[in-house]
Specification:
Chain lengths: ~260, ~200
């Protein structure tokens, strides 16, 4: 076969324990057409031998849906935060040149569990903080709620594609260990649930949460979030809109206090 | 609003940059533009008038000193908090974000020097102009002074763009793009304007 002697060379940033020092390790995988980063990592797992020929522990990473809707396999691929399942090797080579080394690293804004696996609990805690849901549970039936207007559905649906993958948080210069910024995705989620006809009934709670420490005011308009979002959510527009909403809400709250 | 929240201070920080600081910057440059019209005698007369206005120190304190101090002190915290990544994410707005923070620090140093030199070390109009003309004739000083001035102007113009977003005035892509063009055009226009003033003063 023509592909016999072609290899995919990957360099992985590894870390054995949450608090141990990171190190780099390279692997060569036989090339096959139509691979993605996940299938390359599966090959490493089948035969975990590094380029020095030394048998090592297989690389640890997370993946789940394999169709870019769960966000679990998000990692830095050649420095760009994206999903490993949607990162097709042939497409990467189209840009970098065939056989060029592919560098894999864990996201830098989250605690590392091991190798490419990170702890994204912070994002889920922050979703709880901004109450990113529609509260319908109760002890009696409350009948049908109002319908979502078609005009709003169109753009709100795009926000609902958010999978809390962390790409926007990774690229945002204001999300860092030095700030408590909840990040771009969560601001868009507030807009989604404040637009929802039932969710709208609790919009003040979400606006309050959005103005707490680490809230919307931490945005510095670098606008990287929008560029890296794999779901093409126009996060910057949603942030600007919520800037207006939170300001209006703050003024109204003060005037009626 | 939670007592611990910085929402209010962030919005005050943003507002102060335009009112009064940005307006003062434009007023300051307009006043200095007398160098184009009446030469040194008119310029000296205008500076003399401004510096001897009754209660001018109240205006200096309320419109200039306190707002800039508040903006600068909280701004340095904002600069500290950012984890700049313009070399990894080479987008125009991310570079503007990084430059906004770099020019913030340059402007802060420039303003301390500028205020010391032209407000506190000498106060009467004649001495201030003599001193500045002399220094600006040194090419190295001229370049450093122009960098300080251009940093302040960039910081104002780019800050105007982000101000419009932070207050929810420009929301969609189109309005943000148009205001991005306007802010950068303003930077070029005001920048040329400011450096021209320096050039004329250096020639006195």
């Amino acid at each position: 076969m023509a592909n016999d002697n072609k290899v995919i060379n990957i360099k992985v940033k590894r870390q054995d324990k949450p608090d141990s020092a990171p190190y780099w390790e390279e692997f060569n995988i036989p090339y096959k057409p139509n691979m993605n980063v996940v299938s390359v990592l599966m090959e490493v797992r089948k035969n975990p031998v590094n380029v020095q020929g030394k048998a090592v522990n297989p690389v640890v990473w997370e993946c789940n849906c394999l169709e870019e809707v769960c966000g679990a396999c998000t990692m830095l691929i050649n420095g760009v935060p994206r999903q490993a399942c949607a990162a097709l090797i042939d497409k990467i080579y189209e840009q970098t040149g065939f056989g060029k080394q592919i560098v894999l690293a864990p996201l830098t804004k989250f605690p590392i569990v091991r190798d490419l696996t990170i702890d994204r609990a912070r994002m889920f805690e922050n979703l709880k903080r901004v109450k990113a849901w529609v509260p319908v549970d109760g002890s009696w039936a409350i009948a049908r709620g109002p319908r979502f207007a078609d005009r709003d559905q169109r753009w709100a649906y795009i926000i609902s594609r958010c999978m809390t993958c962390g790409c926007c948080q990774e690229a945002c210069p204001n999300v860092s260990g030095k700030s408590k910024f909840i990040g771009p995705s969560h601001i868009a989620q507030v807009r989604l649930f404040n637009t929802h006809p039932i969710g709208e009934m609790n919009k003040e709670e979400r606006l309050d949460a959005l103005m707490l420490e680490g809230g919307i005011q931490e945005c510095g308009n670098a606008q990287n979030c929008r560029k890296v979002c794999p779901k093409e959510i126009p996060l910057t527009n949603h942030i600007a809109f919520m800037n207006k909403e939170t300001f209006k809400y703050a003024v109204r709250k003060w005037r009626t206090k | 609003m939670d007592k611990k929240s910085n929402f209010l201070i962030r919005r005050i920080h943003s507002l102060l940059a335009i009112i009064p600081i940005g307006i003062f910057l434009l007023f300051h440059l307009s006043l200095n533009s007398t160098v184009f019209f009446g030469g040194r005698p008119l310029y000296e007369a205008v500076i003399h008038f401004m510096k001897n206005m009754p209660l001018v120190w109240v205006l200096e304190l309320v419109i200039i000193f306190v707002p800039i101090l508040v903006h600068a002190i909280y701004g340095i915290w904002i600069v500290y908090v950012a984890k700049n990544n313009a070399f990894n994410y080479k987008y125009g707005n991310n570079w503007a974000f990084y430059l906004q923070r770099i020019t913030a620090l340059i402007t802060a140093v420039f303003l301390v020097f500028h205020v010391y030199l032209q407000r506190f070390s000498v106060h009467e109009a004649e001495g201030v102009i003599d001193g500045l003309t002399g220094l600006l004739q040194n090419p190295l000083f001229f370049i450093l002074y122009a960098i300080g001035l251009l940093s302040a102007i960039f910081h104002f113009c780019n800050g105007f763009f982000t101000f419009l977003i932070s207050w929810g005035i420009t929301i969609g892509d189109h309005s943000q793009k148009i205001c991005r063009y306007i802010s950068m055009t303003l930077f070029v226009v005001i920048g040329v304007w400011g450096v021209s003033i320096l050039t004329v003063i250096a020639g006195f």
